[in-house]
Write a structure and sequence with these properties.
Number of strands: 4
Helix content: 40-55%
Strand order of the largest sheet: 1-2
Structural class: mainly alpha
Number of helices: 8
Radius of gyration: 16 Å
Order of helices and strands: HHEEHHEEHHHH
Distance between the termini: 43 Å
């Protein structure tokens, strides 16, 4: 079992996290590059950035109980795509075929209350990486890194869609003062 601190540290001061997670969302928040705040041990919130959402998602992943089988949470989302959207995808040998896997997860998660399955899948992937002595996001095996980044991007995207995002414009920050 890995501590919440281990999970948070897994994402700390990463050279790849913003590129892999936030850059795909740059059409929504153009400021996708994040800065690590060494004193607060968090990414620095900035205008037009999902940095604060990234911090909150990291916290949600860190406190999520480790799922026994994280793939089951991803399967729930893919099965919803088959059932509700009627996509011609199928599971063969433990893999979903017939569509882009991150797109399947994104489409299947529109009814995922509070992104619970997405968060559990992401938490499971982090714990699996830590089990394999991959102590940091930047050290992950490439295929698992790609899917974990996609899961986090999707979570942030859905937070933005449902109004839970901490994204703010530069004018909004001045209005708060």
């Amino acid at each position: 079992m890995h501590s919440t601190g281990d999970v948070r540290n897994f994402f700390a001061w990463s050279g790849w996290l913003d590129h892999m997670v936030l850059r795909p969302l740059s059409h929504i928040a153009g400021n996708w590059e994040v800065r690590w705040n060494h004193d607060e041990k968090r990414y620095q919130p900035e205008p037009d950035s999902f940095a604060e959402d990234l911090n909150e998602v990291i916290d949600l992943i860190a406190i999520c109980p480790r799922p026994l089988k994280y793939h089951e949470h991803e399967d729930v989302l893919a099965e919803r795509v088959v059932r509700e959207l009627k996509w011609p995808i199928q599971k063969r040998g433990g893999r979903w075929i017939g569509g882009d896997y991150p797109t399947i997860l994104e489409q299947g998660s529109f009814d995922d209350l509070d992104q619970r399955n997405l968060i559990a899948a992401a938490a499971g992937r982090v714990h699996a990486a830590l089990d394999r002595e991959q102590r940091h996001f930047d050290e992950m095996e490439e295929g698992h890194l790609y899917i974990l980044a996609a899961l986090i991007s999707i979570i942030i995207y859905h937070r933005d869609c449902n109004g839970a995002s901490k994204l703010f414009a530069e004018n909004d920050e001045n209005d708060m003062a």
